Amino acid sequence: RYRHVPTFLRDTIRRFATNIAEMKKLAGRDFEDSLQCALPCFEALFPNKQHQKIVLDLLFDLGWWHGLAKLRLHTDSTLASLEHATVELGRSIRRLELISQEYATCELPKEKRARIQRQQKRDSVAVGAARRATAHPTQIAKKEQDQPRRFDRKSYKRHALGDYARAIRYWGTIDSYSTQIVSTVRFVR
């Protein structure tokens, strides 16, 4: 569905890949573009209307939160809105966790290939052979079963969302400071 989304201007919304789940080396703009175009792509995707509403509400809350979080100039009212949006986003994530148990989800093909490569590397080290001639991971991936994946809201990434408004109050917006100054300093003995 993302593939059918038209581009917008020259650099605003770029053309999506054929399979958005298989995209590699994503830039920040790719994540932002996929979030901005998510609502029409997910519309009428779920057969259960209640589940559809929960997913679309979550996507809206993510877009709202993202829009507030990336502002370059914050006031007390925008930070209060960001805190409110964070609370709503947390509620939407908890609702998604409840319905996600009803759907059987599995790992993506690229995650499966990476898992098999890790297993092969671990096995070759355990055997003691540094380099062992084995079948290509994509050939093994076709034979092996997909691992089930469950939605986990208890990751640090989601936990840190609650601290975002407080961090902006304390340090300012992300564009107001840079690590470039430190990286260009040369130390002389």
UniProtKB/TrEMBL annotation:
Biased composition (Basic and acidic residues): 141-152
Region (Disordered): 126-152
Annotated protein name in UniProt: Uncharacterized protein
Source organism: Schizophyllum commune (strain H4-8 / FGSC 9210) (Split gill fungus)
